Input
Amino acid sequence: MAQIDSRLGDMIRSYREKLGLTQEEMAERLQVNLTHYGNIERAACNPSFSLFLRIAKELNLSVDAYLYSTRDDTAAEITRLLSKCSKRECQIILENILTLLKNRDECT
Output
């Protein structure tokens, strides 16, 4: 029997709530039973891989954000926001982060 990871349900719920969607609306969008969808968010069961991909697409949830996540919501939120940026915008953000780290290291 596969182990159930409660991080997945927590992440799905968090992203759904940030979009202002109810469980009923998500279940309808995904064309799944409301009880089954609720069980996924409560970590009573895992979604199939294909359903996981559909959920990620509906919520604009980076699969990497889940696969490489820690319990740090800030990192997950940054990853989610970066997925909405253009390549040029990502480059600018990277340059700013590198400058910030360089300046931080020089001050310590």
